[in-house]
From TrEMBL, chain A:
This is Nucleolar protein-like protein. Pfam families: Nop. Transmembrane segments: none annotated. Residues 158-272 form the Nop domain. SUPFAM superfamilies: Nop domain. One of its GO terms (cellular component) is box C/D methylation guide snoRNP complex. Coiled coil: none annotated. InterPro entries: Helix_hairpin_bin_sf (IPR029012), Nop56/Nop58 (IPR045056), Nop_C (IPR042239), Nop_dom (IPR002687), Nop_dom_sf (IPR036070). One of its GO terms (molecular function) is snoRNA binding. The lineage of its organism: Archaea, Methanobacteriati, Methanobacteriota, Stenosarchaea group, Halobacteria. It comes from the Archaea.
Automatic annotation (TrEMBL), chain B:
Belongs to the methyltransferase superfamily. Fibrillarin family. Its EC number is 2.1.1.-. Involved in pre-rRNA and tRNA processing. Utilizes the methyl donor S-adenosyl-L-methionine to catalyze the site-specific 2'-hydroxyl methylation of ribose moieties in rRNA and tRNA. Site specificity is provided by a guide RNA that base pairs with the substrate. Methylation occurs at a characteristic distance from the sequence involved in base pairing with the guide RNA. The gene is flpA. Interacts with nop5. Component of box C/D small ribonucleoprotein (sRNP) particles that contain rpl7ae, FlpA and nop5, plus a guide RNA. It comes from Haloarcula amylolytica JCM 13557. GO terms for molecular function: histone H2AQ104 methyltransferase activity; RNA binding; rRNA methyltransferase activity. NCBIfam families: PRK04266.1-2, PRK04266.1-4. One of its GO terms (biological process) is box C/D sno(s)RNA 3'-end processing. S-adenosyl-L-methionine binds at T71, T72, E87, F88, D112, A113, D132, V133, A134, T135. It is an enzyme of class 2 (transferase). This is Fibrillarin-like rRNA/tRNA 2'-O-methyltransferase. SMART domains: Fibrillarin. PANTHER family: FIBRILLARIN, RRNA 2-O-METHYLTRANSFERASE FIBRILLARIN.
Amino acid sequence: MSNGWFAGLDPDDDAAAVEQIEAGRAETPEDWPQQAVEAGFADDEAAYYDRLHEVTMAATSTAVAEREGADDQQLVHAVRAMADCERTANELAERVAEWGGSRHGDSGSGVEYARSLADRTDEDEGDTALRALAEQTAELADEADSLRAYIERTAPAVAPNLSMLAGPVLAARLISLAGGLEALAKKPSGTVQVLGAEDALFAHLKGNAPSPKHGVIFTHEYVRGTRREDRGSAARAFAGKLSIAARIDHYSGDRRPDLQAELDERIERIQARAEEGDE
Amino acid sequence: MTLPTGVERHDFDGETSLATQGQPVYGERTDGDWRRWDPHRSKLGAMLEQGMDTGLEGGETVLYLGAAAGTTVSHVADFGGPTYAVEFAPRPVRELLDAAESRRNLFPLLKDARKPESYAHVVEPVDVVVQDVATRGQARVATLNKQFLTDDGRLLAAIKARSEDVTADPDAVFDSVRTELSAEYELLETARLDPFHEDHLGIVARPRED
């Protein structure tokens, strides 16, 4: 049998009731008003509904504040920290591989090699020093993973539509590159398209390079998965929808599932050009 | 068509419109206690305006999925009994809280309509489920929430074609939604909500017995 939100609660304990409304669960709905009266939680159904109104109001306003408090600046810090951890872990992994190769000959590469060294048993002091470094490297890579998980959890609350289209991590990168969700929402989509390609953009503006077709959005399948000739179009279409999504997220906060379908359709049409060209 | 008790056709400066009695919520026109229920802003309002037989009599226990800022659910709470309002997006819920402030029988919940187990510990079995969720898989949401309906309860759903697939022909979308719903519900009446809401289908249905 399922339990109602009031099960085991002191009728006057506001904080516990709010917690139960937010986090509680039940397999099936039951006649809660009647059960609450029978359990002595409320004198009668009218009193139960009065209490329910109070606690749902309180719980929902707390939940709204929490969800909205997941702000864009926290996300910016997290995504930058994740990039630092990844970069440093990779750098240290190279050092570990070089050192490991000189001692064991069985040189591998990357964080995986560092993880395998971290599990070795020491034979002398050199082994101990190398293993300690390998352990730190693996831990740093783990830290990057847990920051990524944090971003995947919080980005959809900060920017639901942008996260839906771009995925949480790319959404966080774009917000970070722009300096915040509001700043991203105010950028034209042509700028969103080349965020993260600033070096290439300024080389182009100086007059000695072609214009960049895409910045960090290249990491998304929709750009990378499109053949080279059409990548500019795909990036432009993708960036267009992303900036619309960022504006909705900043100014209204509604969810617009339509955006995803519209984007899917645009990209499908662009990618279909490759097949038409083959004929 | 009979309107539920508590809903009337009321005259607002020469224009007759559906109306309920309660505190105004979204800047709608008022006349004394009466507040205009604009069918252009409310899909349930449009269903009543179209003359669909919703079976609503007034005083029902209601689970409202996709309450958004509370435009429609505030009218429902005006004529209904205990009304549970589920909405997933935090920003509109702030306005929903304002609407619920003056309505003791309206219980706002920040929950995901696709996860009924996260609110089944609060919501009791109800006479009516009103569904207006603009997400893909609207038939699935109705199926998941069937457990809240009493045997003789009613599902009043507004299906938005563009939420399922922007590119498909709305009629094709509605056909597939009707087919999927029919597994769990007996469809009593369906009607397009034009001209009030483009590419929306209003559905009145009754749960099939398991």
